[in-house]
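[Automated response] Your request has been received and processed.

Submitted sequence:
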Amino acid sequence: MLEKQHKEKQPSPPLVLASTSRYRRTLLERLQMPFETASPDVDEAPEDGEAGAACAARLSRLKARAVAAGHPSALIIGSDQVAECDGRRLDKPGDIERAIEQLSWASGKQAIFSTAVTLFNSATGREQTQVVPTTVRYRRISRAEIERYLQQEVAIDCAGSAKAEGLGISLLDAIEGTDPTALIGLPLIALCSMLREENVAIP
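Generated structure:
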């Protein structure tokens, strides 16, 4: 019988996503586990001379710890992404004009998206952090193509000004990485490994 062949699942600690990002929430829903979200009060400004990967890792840790006090027996997920292209940060543009300028800059260039994920056990203090890099090569894009794209998909809340999971894929030559979910904002392969380290059964 199944109950004799497999150990009964132990109840997992509550899972909290330290983010209000709809992209990260949608990604985490793929794991079909109950979770809640909390908004971390964290200054996301980079430190002087801080590399993108180091900044993403630091902020993901800060975000996880920022909500831990309100969830003393939970597993807290923090995440952050920093994109860099030719020494320049590709932040969320916030408006169409900045998105046009950013895509014009990135046209024909290669960008590195460093996406960090942290799993913090607020009951034990155990912290796991991993940075997953993704290389994105933008094709040469004309101003008319950029404007046409942004009319159809307003990607002003995305680093790099393009949604690779949507129409933004048409602006790219290649994506190279180990986890496609990292580029969207939450590296699920790394997160699943961390959850298993905390004895959370997935699936």
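Summary generated for your ticket: Residues 1-7 have pLDDT under 50 and may be disordered. The first strand starts at residue 15 and ends at 17.
If you did not submit this request, please reply to this message.
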